Amino acid sequence: KDQTLYWISAPEEEVWAWNTKDAPFRRLFDTTIGCVVLKDGPKGSIVVGGERAFLSTTMTSNAMADFGSGPTILCERPEQNQATRPNDGRVDRQGRFVFGMYNNYHRLGCSEGENNAGLYRLNKNLEMEQILDYKYRVSNCICFPADGKTMYFCDTPTRKVYAFDYPEGAGSLTNRRLVWTVPSSLPGGPDGAQVDADGGLWIALSGAGRVVRVDPSTGSVTMVVHLPVKSPTSCTFGGSDLDELYITTRGPDGGGLYKIKLPGVKGLPEPEFQVGGNYKL
Asked: What is the pTM of this model?
């Protein structure tokens, strides 16, 4: 509703905002950031999934008002005693915040190769529920089609993307089925993802220099967006008609933001995290 794009630079501890007309601006949060989602409230209301805690704030281009208010702690992050942090996350069609954790040392270190990260849902009363019956290493591809009855998810090192039945109320994910596996001919793995208005699943392939559209019903790749850098990190739809695909990237050759207009393809409005009216921060 703000016609504003928000994205993060995780290691730099930054959230960026851009209305696609004026100059983009950033805000520093003094914590490694996994994701950012919209929050119901005044213009610019967001929730930041930080390694230290989940933060609620309002980002505007008015620097004095923005920095003067400062973020507030919405709630503590889970897995306080694990070598993990929040990573991928989106708001479901019911206005709840679904997010997954990330094994900080899944490549090398104290928890190398260990499946120690969980998948959680935060509801309007700020109650946190674990919704996946197994642990993994790196959460990604969390997104929902228009009816909200399915959730997509992957553990990036496995290179496999799954669909689950998603409950409208409380309860865990069920009926896991494989949607797509990254072909052996491609490097890298699935990162962030988004669903278009026709149900197509758009997946950023970090390390492969492309974003692919997969038909979840067949597992077929129906479109490919090639990028001039190796590692796209996520994608989403924007613009007044939701017909522009925005793609974030990371280094060493990336770090830029890309936009492509795809004829005949439109996205879905991004839901906002709903916090119960009787709860006060």
From this structure: 0.94
